[in-house]
Amino acid sequence: MEEAVKVAGRKLEILNIDQGCQYTSAAWTGTVEALGAKVSMDGKGCWMDNVFIERLWRSVKHEEIYLKEHATVIVLAQGLREWFGRYNDWRSHQHLGNQTPSRNYRPPAAAPRAALTPPARRSGKPPLRS
């Protein structure tokens, strides 16, 4: 979670989760609150609250897991890294204005210092104005 906040480059405000035991533990909620966010939990049986993540996992299963034989956990992990790379960096999403999640959610890379520095004058004369 800390890495996701770092990569996004912005503060986490609210984390909406279900009521699974992994999310109600003091360790999890403490981490969320230490990041300055509020914990919001879905009501029991509120499937609509999870529809977006359920759709994501459906895509992962049908486009990666069910189609390929992952002989080992290491091969599976590599396949998932590649799939999520395509999902985030290549695949445009209609609800994001046909942008990729990376382009939409990650802050733009800082301009290189050289791009911010005006070119040096070669002579001591001021530049010509047009």
UniProtKB/TrEMBL annotation:
Domain of life according to the entry: Bacteria
Signal peptide: none
Matches recorded under InterPro entries: Integrase_cat-core, RNaseH-like_sf, RNaseH_sf, Transposase_IS3/IS150/IS904
Positions of the UniProt region annotated as Disordered: 95-130
Residue spans of biased composition, Low complexity class: 101-121
Molecular functions per Gene Ontology: nucleic acid binding
Pfam families linked: rve_3
Any single GO BP term: DNA integration
Domain Integrase catalytic, residue spans: 1-109
Protein name: Transposase
Organism: Luteolibacter pohnpeiensis
